[in-house]
Write a structure and sequence with these properties.
- The structure holds 2 protein chains of 2 kinds.
- Chain A folds into 3 domains: 155 residues, Aconitase, domain 3, CATH 3.30.499; 120 residues, 3-Layer(aba) Sandwich (Aconitase, Domain 2), CATH 3.40.1060.10; 184 residues, Aconitase, domain 3.
- Helices cover 33% and strands 17% of the residues of chain A.
- Chain A is built from 16 helices and 19 strands.
- In chain A, a hairpin with a 5-residue loop joins strand 1 and strand 2.
- In chain A, helix 2 crosses helix 5.
- Chain B is globular and about 60 Å long.
- Classes of the chains: A alpha/beta, B alpha/beta.
- Chains A and B meet through strand 1, helix 2, helix 3, helix 5 and helix 10 of A and helix 3, helix 4, helix 6, helix 7 and helix 8 of B.
C-alpha cells in the first residue's frame, strides 16, 4: 500500500462499519473524561438503562473546576463540589480509573494522558474537550466531542464520524531565538484563519516539527482546533518512542518493540497524497502575540497591529470590535501593551519544559509590583518534578504565585479569574471575550517565556531583548 | 432500554426567526463557562448569550434575544464560523432550551454542528449575501414565518424559496431519524468487538 496518510491508516484500523447516514462508526481506543462534560452523559446512560461498554479503555481526571489553591474537600464552591462528587460516583460505579487529586496524578486531561503513557501512536482518542487534538502530537487520531457523543462512546465504545480531508503543514527552516512552538501555531492560525481548518485534519511536518520535543508538538497540535481543524497530528518517530518508553501504561521490553512496529506501520507514506499542502518558513517567524479576541488575530511582537480595512472584508467587522474591546490602535505594536495579570498554565503550555523556559527568564528578577502573576502546573506530576528542580522557588522568589494543577485561568471556571477590565498575558489558547472569567477582561496570548517577560516588565515585552534568551 | 428511545425524524422546521450577527461567535459567548458548573443541561436556556444580553446587575441590554418580538423565535440566522471554540454541548443545549430548533448561517464550526446534530437541530448553510438578506428580513419581520425544509434543502420566507445546503450525512440522519446514534451503533456490538480485538493495543476489552 502506498500514498496513504496516518489519518487513513488509523481510520481504517478503527472502522467498525459504515452507518446508514454515510458516516463511519469508529472504535475508540482511549476515552478521556472530566467533570464538566461527562455527568450529563452518565445521566443519559442511566435514563436508557445502559452501562459503560469499555470502562478499561476509559480514564478520568478532574481539571476544569478544581481549586488551585488547595485540594481540601469539600471545595469552597458548592457547584464545584457537586461536580466532583458526581464524577467520583460515576467512575466508582462504572469501574473507571480516575487520576484523583489524592493519587498525586491529577492534572489537565491533555497533560496526564501523555504523561501516564495512556496516549500512544495509532490510537483513536476522544474527550469531551476541544483541545483533545493535543494527543495528535503522538500520531494518534484525537478529537474533541460533545456530551451526546460522550454518551455514544460510553455506551458503545464507538463514535459516528465523517472522514475529512488532510492538509499537510510543513514548517521548514529553523526557529530563531525566543521563538517556539506556540508562535508556530499562532502563526498558522493567523495565516489560515480560525475557520481555515474546518473539514480538515492537520498533519504537521517539516524540519521544525521533526526537531521539536514532544511538549512542543503537543502545544502545536493542541491549538489545531483554534484554526478550525478538529484534529491535528505529527507522525510518530524516535522522539515519540523515546518519550513514551518507561511510562506507566506503555508496554515494556519485547512488547515495546512489538508495539513500536505497529506505531511505525501507521506513519504517513513518503508519497502520501494530501488534499492541501501549506509551507511556512520558520526563519521568518518572531514571537507572536494576539491583539484581538480570536486566536487568529495575532501579530509578530514588533509588527504593527493591522487596520481593520486592510483585512479581508469578512474579517473587518470582527477586527473593529476586537480592537475596541482590547483598546489597541492599528499601526501600533503590541510591545508595551500594559498588563495586570500574567498566567503561565493551561493544556497548551504548562508542561515541565514550558515551566523551565519561563523560570529562566524570571530567575533573579522581580514581577512588576502592579502585576498579579501565577504559575499553574499542568499536573501534580509536573508540579512535583518542577519542585524537585527548584523551579517553584525561582517563581515564588520573583513574586509569582505557585499553584496546584488544573485548567485555572484559561477558562475561569474556578476561583482564578480576571477581574473587571484587567489585561492578561497568558500562555493559554483562547482570547475570546469573557474567556478568563470577566466579560471586560482582555487576554493577550503568547508563549510562556513571553508571559514571564511581560510579568517582569508589566507590559508585553519582546523576550528576545532579555539576555537569557540568547543563552537558552 | 435503548430500543425504546423514540428518535423523531426532522424533515421540516418552521417558525419565526432571530438574527445574531457577527462572524466567529464562539461557544464561550453562547454560554459562558461559569454557567457550566452544573451536572444537568436543565435550565441552561436562560443563560444563552448571557453576557451579550445582560449587564453588570443583570439589567437587559440591547440584544435581539431580549426583544419580546423575537421571544418565540425558533430559527436562528447567523454568519460565518458560528460556534467555534470549546466543544461544550452546553452551547446548542442552551440555544435549544431557549427555543431554537434550526440554525441557518454562512458556516458552522465542526464540533458545534456535530453537537447540534446529536440534538436533532439542523445547521443549514447559505452564502453570505443570502444570509445577510435573510437576517435583514427577520429583523424587519419578527412575526414572519420561515419554513425550513431539510429534505429539499430550501428555506421559504416572504413568498420566496432560497436554496440552502445541509451536509449529506446530517441530512440523512435528520430525515431518516437516526441522529441519535447510540442504539444504532450499539446494535453493531459484534463488529465492534471484532474491531477492538484486531487492534494491537486492546485485548478482551482492556488496554494491553
Amino acid at each position: 500500500m502506498s500514498e496513504r496518510t496516518l489519518y487513513d491508516n488509523v481510520w481504517d484500523r478503527h472502522k467498525v462499519t459504515t452507518l446508514p447516514t454515510g458516516q463511519d462508526q469508529l472504535f475508540v481506543g482511549l476515552h478521556l473524561i472530566h467533570e464538566v462534560t461527562s455527568p450529563q452523559a452518565f445521566g443519559m446512560l442511566e435514563e436508557r438503562d445502559l452501562e459503560v461498554a469499555y470502562p478499561d479503555l476509559t480514564h478520568a481526571t478532574v481539571d476544569h473546576i478544581v481549586p488551585t489553591s488547595s485540594t481540601e474537600r469539600p471545595y469552597g464552591d458548592d457547584a464545584a463540589e457537586e461536580m466532583m462528587s458526581a464524577l467520583e460516583g460515576n467512575v466508582r460505579e462504572a469501574g473507571i480509573d480516575f487520576s484523583h487529586p489524592e493519587t498525586g496524578e491529577q492534572g489537565i486531561v491533555h497533560v496526564i494522558g501523555p504523561e501516564q503513557g495512556l496516549t500512544q501512536p495509532g490510537m483513536t482518542i476522544v474527550c469531551g474537550d476541544s483541545h483533545t487534538s493535543t494527543h495528535g502530537a503522538f500520531g494518534a487520531l484525537a478529537f474533541g466531542i460533545g456530551t451526546s457523543q460522550i454518551r455514544d462512546v460510553l455506551a458503545t465504545g464507538t463514535i459516528a464520524m465523517e472522514k475529512q480531508k488532510v492538509r499537510r503543514i510543513e514548517i521548514n527552516g529553523e526557529l530563531g531565538e525566543g521563538v517556539e512552538a506556540k508562535d508556530v501555531i499562532l502563526e498558522i492560525i493567523r495565516r489560515l484563519g480560525t475557520e481555515g481548518g474546518v473539514g480538515y485534519v492537520y498533519e504537521y511536518a517539516g524540519d521544525v516539527v521533526e526537531n521539536m520535543d514532544m511538549e512542543g508538538r503537543m502545544s502545536i497540535c493542541n491549538m489545531s482546533i483554534e484554526g478550525g481543524a478538529r484534529a491535528g497530528y505529527v507522525n510518530p518517530d524516535e522522539t515519540t518512542y523515546e518519550w513514551l518508553e518507561g511510562r506507566d501504561a506503555v508496554p515494556e521490553g519485547e512488547d515495546f518493540e512489538e508495539r513500536k512496529a505497529y506505531w511505525e506501520s501507521i506513519r504517513s507514506d513518503d508519497d502520501a497524497e494530501y488534499d492541501d499542502v501549506v509551507t511556512i518558513d520558520a526563519d521568518e517567524l518572531e514571537p507572536v502575540v494576539t491583539w484581538g479576541t480570536t486566536p487568529g488575530q495575532g501579530v509578530g511582537v514588533t509588527e504593527p497591529i493591522p487596520a481593520p480595512e486592510e483585512l479581508p472584508a469578512e474579517k473587518q467587522d470582527t477586527a473593529r470590535r476586537a480592537q475596541e474591546h482590547m483598546r489597541v490602535e492599528p499601526g501600533e505594536t503590541m510591545e508595551g501593551y500594559s498588563i495586570d495579570v500574567a498566567f503561565v498554565g493551561s493544556c497548551t503550555n504548562a508542561r515541565l519544559p514550558d515551566l523551565r523556559r519561563a523560570a529562566r527568564i524570571v530567575e533573579g528578577r522581580e514581577v512588576d509590583p502592579d502585576v498579579r502573576a501565577m504559575v499553574v502546573p499542568g499536573s501534580q506530576r509536573v508540579k512535583a518534578a518542577a519542585e524537585k528542580e527548584g523551579l517553584d522557588e525561582i517563581f515564588t522568589e520573583a513574586g509569582f504565585d505557585w499553584r496546584g494543577a488544573g485548567c485555572s485561568m484559561c477558562l475561569g471556571m474556578n476561583e482564578d479569574q480576571l477581574e473587571g477590565d484587567e489585561a492578561s498575558a497568558s500562555s493559554s489558547n483562547r482570547n475570546f471575550v469573557g474567556r478568563q472569567g470577566s466579560k471586560d477582561g482582555r487576554t493577550v496570548l503568547m508563549n510562556p517565556r513571553m508571559v514571564a517577560a511581560a510579568a517582569i516588565h508589566g507590559e508585553v515585552t519582546d523576550v528576545r531583548d532579555i539576555e537569557e534568551v540568547a543563552r537558552q | 432500554m435503548s430500543e425504546n428511545v423514540e428518535i423523531p425524524s426532522v424533515e421540516e422546521v418552521s417558525g419565526t426567526g432571530v438574527a445574531i450577527r457577527g462572524n466567529d461567535i464562539d461557544t464561550d459567548q453562547i454560554i459562558p463557562a461559569r454557567f457550566m458548573k452544573v451536572v444537568t443541561f436543565d435550565g441552561l436556556g436562560q443563560f444563552a448569550f448571557f453576557d451579550q444580553r445582560f449587564g453588570e446587575d443583570d439589567e437587559q441590554k440591547d440584544h435581539p434575544m431580549n426583544e419580546p418580538k423575537h421571544a418565540d423565535a425558533s430559527v436562528m440566522v447567523v454568519n460565518a464560523n458560528f460556534g467555534c471554540g470549546s466543544s461544550r454541548e452546553h452551547a446548542p443545549q442552551a440555544l435549544m432550551r431557549w427555543g431554537i430548533d434550526a440554525l441557518i448561517g454562512e458556516s458552522f464550526a465542526e464540533i458545534f454542528a456535530g453537537n447540534c446534530l446529536a440534538l436533532g437541530i439542523p445547521t443549514l448553510e447559505a452564502d453570505a449575501e443570502t444570509v445577510e438578506e435573510l437576517q435583514t428580513w427577520v429583523e424587519a419581520n419578527p412575526d414572519g414565518e420561515l419554513e425550513v425544509d431539510v429534505t429539499d434543502e430550501t428555506v421559504t420566507y416572504d413568498g420566496r424559496e432560497i436554496d440552502v445546503e445541509v451536509d449529506d450525512a446530517q441530512r440523512k440522519a435528520l430525515v431518516e431519524g437516526v441522529w441519535d446514534t447510540t442504539a444504532l451503533m450499539k446494535s453493531n456490538e459484534r463488529a465492534i468487538e471484532e474491531t477492538a480485538e484486531s487492534l494491537p493495543y486492546v485485548e478482551d476489552g482492556k488496554r494491553v
